[in-house]
């Protein structure tokens, strides 16, 4: 029945039954032993809620209609279960549905029903059940615990694990959304946290996304519609990848939140001699490994065909969070990212999408990511000695304030670095920032600008400092010398006037 038809049905029901008696009439239908009448009652509830949800939802909830709908989820009738899913999804839009704790008492029925429906060959039933589950997980107030025991939390995770692995893309996509909502701190069972179960769920989600991406890449559309089909496939893959990354980001957020809870660090019931795999530390290292082996390759393949700001915002926020989640690996991870051209990639994103006031959220995420990665790289240098605490503190302040202001292309950045006009303090600091970025990229073999052009730009920058009688921070001076040395001509000599400039500046 379409929405207009439901609206007409709702008017007829209201006209014949009256507002005050309507919940009672519908409750009697739901309580009937006749399955046909039960389905009819559910359809009437859908019709009324579609037509006027604000008017009737509170009355239905006060009449405990959700209780009977939850009971019907155990029915063998797919039509009755599907109708009950729909009714409950509509009722979930009313805050009273949660404050009266209907979800706390009904969540077991939802999980059991979802497990059973996934065994049936009914895609619409799968989707509707997952939609209800997502609504409950998303809207449940944090102060009202949804899963009151660890067994039910485990069963919910396993049902989602099965759903994200569905061969039907629409079902898997809805399951990924539910997974993102499920990975909330208040949804996880009281300690011990079931990290092994969470890991299995995330692995299933990431593997399904990788499988889907590879399937589309292997397809070669033929004929006149090939271009249109290709664009549709890229869009479809991008949406699924974005949802998957949002789910993975939720897991990263969960790991960070658990860092402040000693009781969530590890399973207190594990024998001291046992290998401690079900711990926050092991889960955190899994997140880093999974991002490295699955998330990064999937995103980089997708970037070969298209770039979407929202997807890159989520992706870079994940990379940024991993520096916090696995702090003992942050320097090594930063070096690997720099060697894989992530400084260049982030600067290109800022230049393409963040000029002016465009995409401020993406600009901030890019800046935060670059800030942490640069500090990590400077703290564990490859070619020069580490800066002092005082120098590192000065660089930290410089990067924090000036990175959000950099959104120029590489040629524009070189031109700005070469500018010999008088530089105000803020502009000079932006030059320092740009030079540091080029320096860190070059150290890790990411030479994305011409060496000859970079040589000229750094030379002009140093001469400009001399013209204004300025002495740059030692870190900046070291970076300048390194870049000049790495970019110099093959005869290994620097120009005479540049040599004089360096002497006077030092």
From TrEMBL:
InterPro entries: ARM-like, ARM-type_fold, Immune_Signaling-Apoptosis_Reg. It comes from the Eukaryota. Gene3D superfamilies: Leucine-rich Repeat Variant. One of its GO terms (biological process) is meiosis I. Coiled coil: none annotated. This is Meiotic double-stranded break formation protein 1. The lineage of its organism: Eukaryota, Metazoa, Chordata, Craniata, Vertebrata.
């Amino acid at each position: 029945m379409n929405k207009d038809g439901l609206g007409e049905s709702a008017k007829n029901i209201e006209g014949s039954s009256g507002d005050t008696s309507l919940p009672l009439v519908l409750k009697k239908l739901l309580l009937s032993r006749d399955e046909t009448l039960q389905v009819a009652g559910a359809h009437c509830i859908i019709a009324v809620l579609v037509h006027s949800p604000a008017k009737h939802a509170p009355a239905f909830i006060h009449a405990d209609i959700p209780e009977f709908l939850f009971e019907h989820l155990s029915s063998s009738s797919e039509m009755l279960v599907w109708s009950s899913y729909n009714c409950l999804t509509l009722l979930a839009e009313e805050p009273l549905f949660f404050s009266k704790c209907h979800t706390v008492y009904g969540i077991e029925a939802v999980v059991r029903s979802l497990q059973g429906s996934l065994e049936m060959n009914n895609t619409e039933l799968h989707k509707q059940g997952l939609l209800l589950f997502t609504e409950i997980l998303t809207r449940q107030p944090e102060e009202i615990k949804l899963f009151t025991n660890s067994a039910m939390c485990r069963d919910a995770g396993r049902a989602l694990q099965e759903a994200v692995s569905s061969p039907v893309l629409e079902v898997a996509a809805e399951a990924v959304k539910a997974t993102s909502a499920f990975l909330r701190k208040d949804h996880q069972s009281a300690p011990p946290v079931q990290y092994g179960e969470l890991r299995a769920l995330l692995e299933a989600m990431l593997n399904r996304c990788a499988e889907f991406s590879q399937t589309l890449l292997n397809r070669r559309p033929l004929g006149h519609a090939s271009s249109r089909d290709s664009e549709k496939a890229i869009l479809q893959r991008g949406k699924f990848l974005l949802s998957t990354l949002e789910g993975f980001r939720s897991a990263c957020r969960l790991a960070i939140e658990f860092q402040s809870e000693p009781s969530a660090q590890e399973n207190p019931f594990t024998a001291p001699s046992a290998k401690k795999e079900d711990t926050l530390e092991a889960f955190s290292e899994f997140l880093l490994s999974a991002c490295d082996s699955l998330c990064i390759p999937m995103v980089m393949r997708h970037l070969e065909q298209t770039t979407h700001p929202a997807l890159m915002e989520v992706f870079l926020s994940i990379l940024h969070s991993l520096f916090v989640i696995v702090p003992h690996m942050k320097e090594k991870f930063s070096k690997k990212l720099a060697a894989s051209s992530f400084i260049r990639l982030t600067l290109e994103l800022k230049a393409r999408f963040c000029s002016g006031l465009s995409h401020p959220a993406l600009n901030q995420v890019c800046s935060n990511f670059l800030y942490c990665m640069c500090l990590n790289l400077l703290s564990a240098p490859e070619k020069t000695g580490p800066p002092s605490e005082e120098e590192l503190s000065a660089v930290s302040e410089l990067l924090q304030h000036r990175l959000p202001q950099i959104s120029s292309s590489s040629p524009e950045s070189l031109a700005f670095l070469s500018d010999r006009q008088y530089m105000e303090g803020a502009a000079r600091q932006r030059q320092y920032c740009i030079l540091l970025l080029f320096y860190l990229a070059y150290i890790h073999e990411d030479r994305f600008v011409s060496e000859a052009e970079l040589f000229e730009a750094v030379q002009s920058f140093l001469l400009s400092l001399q013209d204004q009688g300025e002495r740059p921070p030692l870190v900046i001076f070291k970076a300048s010398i390194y870049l000049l040395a790495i970019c110099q001509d093959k005869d290994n000599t620097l120009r005479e006037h540049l040599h004089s400039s360096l002497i006077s500046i030092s």
